[in-house]
Specification:
single chain; about 550 residues; alpha+beta; Penicillin-binding protein 2a (Domain 2); Beta-lactamase; 2 domains; seven-stranded mixed sheet; five-stranded antiparallel sheet; elongated
Length: about 550
């Protein structure tokens, strides 16, 4: 009998332990894992909030750029409103909210017993005025929605919280790419906060400079990207035109595009350093190798000229970059060979996505190089007939800047989970297109480009590397538009220990033909800002 009693006691003990374990687990879930969710619900109940948005915040370091905020809305329950004076009532409501009086009257006259929203995100004065009307069936409630404290700051990177059908979902940018992480994808996987690589001060400076540049040049569009070449981190990414994600419905969809990753263009002469890198890396040319320019090159019945139609005579490879000699770039391509040219272009990341953590990235277009036609390789050597994204181009320049390593670019520095756990993004090398020796030679050549060609980009006491591009715009019929260009400028500093790489691109600028004239001053201003911001000492006496 005693043996059976012991078995019963042991069984009860096991059941008690199991029950305690279940209770402890539920307490853990309630107090820790689901804390934010329940606290939001409690707040909603106490403050009459009609919906609860549980979504992670987005930061630029400590600066909050996307969060959830309580907004007031005005509503009516038509069945509770006296319909005898519906026109007068509708007029009083309309005058406060600034909405159509007839629509309000129709709502009232419907007699519906359903809650009807009159106006969202109303201001404090409107809230007070609605309450002061004292109309039964008319009231104020609150809903939680996405709020962007910085307005349009970094809008093309952030995107916005919109709708997919009736379901809330991130649209464009970080809001779309990390939609699951921001919402939380399961019962125990709560919303994560996201910290971006963008530096708030650098981002603001880039946007301010881009605004000034756009106004000055009356350009149709513009992009500035600033990258850390050693990690691949994007420090700033600015686009114009842009939008305010707080009021995204007021803008055309084209404003939501991140042109750094979603639009392609022919880079023009800014591709010449890539071609030169190929020749240097193969040992086919040196900076001192000479070439005699006659002003043009004939191939397959076409005459390909220098952009300015100048004849430069005998020039070194350094001078080919300094003077932006198209025929010199073609000479290097001859020495490199077609197969090698294609392989290097691929290893530099062209014709493929970079893998950046932003939605909608396009791969560019180097399909001309698969045609086997020599003329396509020759025109590609000076950036014509191929198309790249701004991100691909700056990432390739970062590979030159950092000594030959092609990094995977990224915009999210870390994700912060519930409870404080962090997931850090680690820098990733995706290719090594050129040797460190080649990169060092090319950096010296690009310093000479600035020293001897772009007086408006030079900064006393510093080694600045850079190259411009002035590219024609395809007309879609096999030719190019007349007097329509895209200007770009890429550079980095200090040249032999770079802390940042800058890309500036503007579409269809007016009044200035060459990028050296249109973009050099802005490049200098941004470079000077960054040198001061990072307290980088002079590299020259």
């Amino acid at each position: 009998m005693a043996k059976h009693d012991n078995l019963r006691i042991n069984a009860y003990f096991v059941l008690i332990l199991a029950a305690a374990a279940v209770i402890s687990y539920n307490l853990f879930v309630l107090t820790y894992i689901r804390h934010h969710s329940y606290s939001r619900t409690a707040q909603a109940q106490s403050e009459n909030i009609t919906n609860v948005l549980a979504r992670g915040n987005i930061y630029l370091e400590e600066y909050l750029v996307a969060t959830n905020k309580k907004f007031p809305l005005a509503y009516i329950v038509p069945a509770e409103i006296n319909t005898q004076n519906s026109a007068e009532t509708a007029g009083r409501i309309s005058s406060v909210l600034g909405i159509d009086e007839n629509e309000v009257k129709d709502m009232i006259d419907s007699g519906s017993d359903k809650f009807r929203v009159l106006s969202r995100r109303i201001d404090d004065e409107q809230v007070a005025a609605i309450k002061a009307l004292g109309i039964k069936g008319l009231g104020i409630t609150y809903e939680t929605d996405r709020y962007y404290p910085g307005g349009s700051l970094a809008a093309s990177v952030l995107g916005f919280l919109g709708y997919s059908g009736d379901k809330r979902s991130g649209q464009y940018g970080i809001e779309a790419f990390y939609d699951d992480e921001l919402f939380g994808s399961g019962k125990t996987d709560r919303p994560a906060d996201i910290v971006l690589t963008l530096d708030k001060n650098i981002q603001q400076a880039a946007e301010d400079k881009l605004d000034v540049l756009m106004n000055k040049l009356e350009a149709a569009g513009g992009t500035i990207i600033i990258q850390d070449p050693n990690t691949g981190e994007i420090l700033a990414m600015a686009d114009r035109p842009t939008f305010d994600p707080n009021n995204y419905s007021e803008y055309e969809p084209r404003n939501f595009l991140n042109r750094g990753v979603q639009e392609i263009f022919e880079p023009g002469s800014s591709f010449k350093p890539i071609t030169m890198a190929m020749g240097l890396d193969l040992g086919a040319v040196t900076p001192q190798t000479t070439f005699k320019d006659e002003g043009f090159r004939e191939v397959a019945g076409y005459r390909i000229k220098n952009f300015s139609e100048r004849v430069f005579g005998t020039v070194t490879m350094s001078q080919v970059l300094e003077r932006s000699v198209n025929t010199g770039a073609m000479y290097v391509q001859d020495q490199v060979g077609d197969d090698n040219f294609l392989n290097y272009a691929i290893n530099f990341g062209f014709g493929q996505k970079t893998g950046i953590d932003l939605p909608g990235e396009v791969p560019g277009d180097i399909t001309n190089l698969y045609s086997g036609r020599k003329i396509n390789f020759l025109t590609a050597s000076f950036g014509q007939g191929i198309a790249v994204t701004p991100l691909q181009l700056i990432n390739a320049y970062s590979a030159i800047a950092n000594g030959g390593k092609l990094m995977k670019p990224y915009v999210v520095k870390k994700m912060i989970k519930e409870g404080g756990g962090q997931e850090l993004t680690q820098p990733e090398i995706v290719a090594i297109p050129i040797s460190e020796k080649t990169a060092t030679k090319l950096k010296s050549m690009l310093v000479s480009v600035v020293d001897n060609g772009f007086d408006k980009a030079r900064i006393s006491g510093y080694d600045i590397a850079g190259k411009t591009g002035t590219a024609q715009i395809p007309d879609g019929k096999g030719g190019y538009l007349e007097n329509e260009y895209i200007h770009d400028f890429l550079g980095f500093a200090p040249a032999f220990d770079p802390k940042f790489v800058i890309l500036i691109k503007v579409d269809r600028p007016k009044g200035i033909t060459f990028a050296a004239d249109s973009l050099s001053p802005t490049f200098k201003e941004i470079t000077q800002f960054l040198l001061n911001y990072y307290s980088i000492p002079p590299t020259r006496r």
